[in-house]
Every structure is written in structure tokens, then in C-alpha cells.
Design goal:
20% strand; 14 strands; UDP N-Acetylglucosamine Acyltransferase, domain 1; 186 residues; 5-stranded parallel sheet; 6-stranded mixed sheet
């Protein structure tokens, strides 16, 4: 595993555990944060070996198969359906429960997903939402269609977004979601 992927794993691990002691405590107590982190760990390993798999090295093929099975097995227990190459670095998922992301969607760096969310396409379309960096998705929100959400946007709990929000710092709430304000982005 190269230095870039190790740095990514450490960066994401620090999003879940502030210290090594907290990590060990989570491992022993088998907390939700531990299992969510393990899922992301398997997802990142799978992404790494997927890139290596293209070169057809036998070790990469075996590792890819192993991490694919581990990710899917843990994903079923947590309620996650997250394919490879959709989450940017530093993704933070706060709760286990239903979380479905379309394989064509792209989620930016350092995004927060509270839980019970769906990011998908409209029936019959191949295009899916594109979220910017540092976005936050509230509990039970949904984002559907070929839309773009700007950096640092917030989507309220239960909001269903079907139109693009192109201004950074947008706050969207309601069904269907509407822009209520634009926060200053720092």
C-alpha cells in the first residue's frame, strides 16, 4: 500500500477517533463508529486494489476479491450500499442505517452524512448528483437526478433535493427542497 493511501486512511481514521486510546476503546466496545470506520477502511482498500486489479497482478486480484466481500458483508449489516470511487477523502458517516449512493454520483471531500440518506438518479437516467466539498446531509435526506450541489452546502433533515444549488454555502430544506439562505463560506 503506497504512502498516499496510508495518509488517506489515517486522515479518515482521525475523523472517527481523536486519539489512539479512543480507537482502542471503540474496538473493545465494538461501537457503531468502529464498524462504520471498518466499512470505510474496506472501501478504501477495495478502491486501492481495484486500481491495481487493472494491471492483473495475482495478489491484487486476491486482495480485491477479499476486500470486496468484506465491504459488502459489513455493508449489509450496517445498511450501507456505497460503491467504490464515489466518496471523496475525509467522508464522515454518523449513523448506521440505510445509506444508498448511486455508482455514478460523486461526493466531495470532507462531507458529512448523518444517516438514512439516498443519493441517486431519476429512473431511466444514468446521471446522478455531484456534491461539492464540505457538504452536510441531514437525517433522511435524498438527492436525486442530474444535479450539482455547491461546496459547503447543507441539506436539512428529510429534505428531497431535485434541483441544483450552485451557490456555495446554500442551505436547502423541505420537500421538494428549496433554498432558504446562503451561509458565508470561509
Amino acid at each position: 500500500m503506497n504512502r498516499e493511501y496510508r495518509a488517506l486512511l489515517n486522515y479518515e481514521k482521525n475523523k472517527y477517533f481523536c486519539s489512539y486510546t479512543e480507537y482502542i476503546k471503540s474496538v473493545i466496545l465494538k461501537t457503531d463508529d468502529y464498524f462504520i470506520w471498518k466499512f470505510l477502511f474496506y472501501l478504501r482498500k477495495l478502491e486501492y486494489f481495484k486500481a491495481k486489479f487493472l494491471s492483473k497482478k495475482w495478489f491484487a486480484i486476491i486482495a480485491y476479491t477479499y476486500y470486496y466481500r468484506k465491504k459488502n458483508s459489513l455493508g449489509r449489516k450496517l445498511g450501507f450500499d456505497i460503491p467504490t470511487d464515489v466518496l471523496g477523502k475525509g467522508a464522515r458517516i454518523f449513523h448506521k442505517g440505510p445509506l444508498v449512493i448511486n455508482p455514478n454520483a460523486k461526493i466531495g471531500d470532507d462531507c458529512i452524512i448523518v444517516g438514512n440518506c439516498c443519493i441517486g438518479n431519476v429512473k431511466g437516467e444514468d446521471k446522478a448528483p455531484q456534491l461539492g466539498d464540505r457538504c452536510m446531509l441531514g437525517w433522511g435526506s435524498g438527492i436525486f437526478g442530474d444535479i450539482t450541489i455547491a461546496d459547503a452546502s447543507k441539506i436539512g433533515a428529510g429534505a428531497i433535493v431535485v434541483k441544483s444549488a450552485l451557490e456555495p454555502g446554500s442551505v436547502l430544506v423541505g420537500v421538494p427542497a428549496r433554498l432558504i439562505r446562503v451561509d458565508r463560506v470561509v
